[in-house]
């Protein structure tokens, strides 16, 4: 079992930074901020439920292409496309087993009023069917250093990034050394990538689309580790 070194090939990293203003709903993070919770408690009142500290799947409902309804998950940033009074809202609170499976405390289903006929027929089972929280909560100290030897903060970051990976979801990055490589379609050879840049790329992807691609992880053989050791110093 190889334990000391991993190498990553990060494919098609654009390096484009996206402005993040910090305003309410100007992000795709399902964990609501204090300002967002205040807005939701005011505009989407639900007796006995407080949005503070909750993780919410923001689901926009639109008429289907041919019939029925289409549910678009992770649409938090869409809330301010219209004024609050132009929306219809439903909140489906999840029970403990649903929370464990889906990673959310509740589903907030919303639609503009002109689509209210389709919206009013929306049911919890339909909204819940494809709901799944894949948005990592990245600690502030992730990427604070560029050491190949992972700090605890950076190890936690990588464990989060690869939690959904079929091959690495049970791998623990604690105490590991990593090499980050970047390649795009215009390059014939990969180039080294700083860990801080990699973390920022992930944050930019999440801000832009609510999704991220951690890249492909490869565990090195003993011979490969010896050959790569000098490059990682």
Describe the structure.
With 233 residues, this protein is of the alpha/beta class. It has two domains: 5-20 and 136-232, no CATH class; 34-129, no CATH class. 26% of the residues lie in helices and 20% in strands. It contains seven helices and eight strands; from the N terminus they run βαβββαβαααββαβα. The protein has helices at residues 34-43, 96-102, 116-120, 124-129, 152-161, 195-209, 222-229, and strands at 5-11, 56-63, 69-72, 87-93, 106-112, 177-183, 191-192, 216-219.
> What's the shape?
elongated
Helix-strand makeup class: alpha/beta
Radius of gyration, whole Å: 21 Å
- Which residues sit in consecutive blocks of at least 5 with pLDDT less than 50? 10-16
- Spatial separation of the terminal alpha carbons: 23 Å
Instruction: List how many beta strands DSSP finds.
Output: 8
In short:
With about 230 residues, the chain is α/β, with parallel strands linked by helices. It is built from 7 helices and 8 strands. It is about 25% helix and about 20% strand.
